[in-house]
Specification:
about 70 residues; alpha+beta; 2 helices
Length: about 70
């Protein structure tokens, strides 16, 4: 379950597994701040791991992975 954000925290891409966690009325995610989506849906960001990655073109992204529940 992953999503990709730009360095400003705006969502660039979300996997289908991430989208399945969201209510159907959330709407399109690209361009929206992750913090807004987390607040609307109740996703606990403390359960997520965030990694910074650089693309070959030099663009930097943040990849968020949701940890499995115990």
């Amino acid at each position: 379950v992953r999503l990709v954000m730009d360095e400003d925290g705006r969502i660039v891409h979300a996997t289908p597994a991430f989208m399945a966690l969201l209510p159907p009325d959330v709407g399109p995610l690209p361009g929206r701040p992750f913090r807004d989506i987390a607040a609307i849906t109740g996703i606990d960001s403390s359960r997520m791991q965030f990694d910074r990655v650089s693309a070959p073109d030099g663009q930097r992204y943040i990849v968020g992975s949701l940890a499995a529940e115990d």
